[in-house]
Design brief:
Number of helices of chain A: 0
Low-confidence stretches of chain B: none
Largest interface: A-B, 25 and 24 residues
Low-confidence stretches of chain A: none
Number of helices of chain B: 0
Order of helices and strands of chain A: EEEEEEEEEEE
Oligomer: heterodimer
Largest sheet of chain B: 6 strands, mixed
Structural class of chain A: mainly beta
Strand content of chain A: over 45%
Radius of gyration of chain B: 13 Å
Amino acid sequence: GAGVSQSPRYKVAKRGQDVALRCDPISGHVSLFWYQQALGQGPEFLTYFQNEAQLDKSGLPSDRFFAERPEGSVSTLKIQRTQQEDSAVYLCASSPDRVEEAFFGQGTRLTVV
Amino acid sequence: GQQLNQSPQSMFIQEGEDVSMNCTSSSIFNTWLWYKQDPGEGPVLLIALYKAGELTSNGRLTAQFGITRKDSFLNISASIPSDVGIYFCAGPSENRDDKIIFGKGTRLHILP
């Protein structure tokens, strides 16, 4: 497809379970961003990649969160030992250059029970 | 840290009415962005503003970058049903321009 693709669209995890969320950016886009959007809130920055390099991970809320983009294309956001407060929509965005040119995916809605 | 305050939080209007919403910050932003998010979708950029005082239109949408660089507004004229959604103002962080800070959004509802 032409847009940013995220999978799965929905994920229900039991507390303590590990999850992996996938993002397929638009082909050729150098920059990739992950955001977390809690219910009723705006998206909050998690991390930023330029190609395979993770240049900013200042928004990751704890060391249970880990993101990678090993070949500079597909990215995975991993959350270990999920907690209820991790329940949110996780949005991925990619951009050819500047952050304001980024296109967002539909997000993965994570519910931790 | 930097925060963006949007008002109103939600709006209920009749189809055909004009809409105005705004966004303020305690700190300066050098770029203002307005996004719309439909249910189950990611935000979509509507308008980007790069210069203080700039007034930019995109169809029925008009946005302005405040002179103080601490505020912006978005107007929608002659609203239609597909305007329903959440409108976010946003801007790059003063410390890291790869990081976009979003407001909490204005939820627009259109009454039948």
